[in-house]
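[Q] Does anyone have a clean structure-token version of this?
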Amino acid sequence: MRLARLQLDYAPVPAFVYEGKYLPVSNILAEASGSIGALVSRTDWANLAQAAQNASGWQPLEGVSFLPACDPTSRIFCVGKNYADHAREMGMTTPGGPAAPDIFVRFPQSFVGHGGTVEYPKSESTFDYEGELAVVIGKAGRAISREAAKDHVFGLTCANDGSLRRLQKRTSQFTLGKNFDRSGALGPTITPLTQLPASLKLDLRTSVNGAAKQNGNTADMIFDIETVIATISAMTELQPGDIILTGTPSGVGAGRTPPEFLNHGDRIDIEIEGLESLSVTVAAVDVLPQ
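[A] Here you go.
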């Protein structure tokens, strides 16, 4: 049993997803709001999921639009160069990669949902893919210890940290290159942590137009999920519905010889072991960045 945000009757609706069908959470929990964060922080997921599985009213997912697996108010923290092989391919010469988690942020408006279209300015020729594991926070916390970090995680989902490399490298900050509207993707569903292996050593693969580009494992992160949560929560109280993108393995377009960037009409597929796969198409749009 997984959780998703779906577009139903022109409104965002949290819904259970199971074996190709969906059920609005409000069918089980009448007071459920449209917020993923509010839902995962206030309910006993195991009991809620059991009630949903036994309920009537399930509908086929065919034709239903997925929204990004985050709230419009979610804070989205990202870890840069969190795999040593990716750090090397991007030109970082420090042995082993960064000395501390390299944190930057994305905005919710920079994501689309599964089956959607990621966008880039047609004047830019360096639009890149980055398949990533994303963590969904389910319990608020400040100064969380590594030992308690997983207690604050509701679940995991797939992400594409779409990047405009020219803009990313134009300044010392990643903000412009990582926040073009609808340039990334998140979803399709959130898999509760309780349904995943405790080690969280998960295979991660990204393909473009069916051709394999990235093939890694989350065990190769320089800074694991627990360390990243401890680092971020020492700065700010994490809130239910916050998202953490944990970095990407090697194989991105900018790291290839010659570089291989995305083009209008391309298809990106991101597969992470134990999660539902994320698929989007690529479109060039008429916006001219400075």
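[Q] Thanks! Anything notable?
[A] DSSP finds six helices and 19 strands in the chain.
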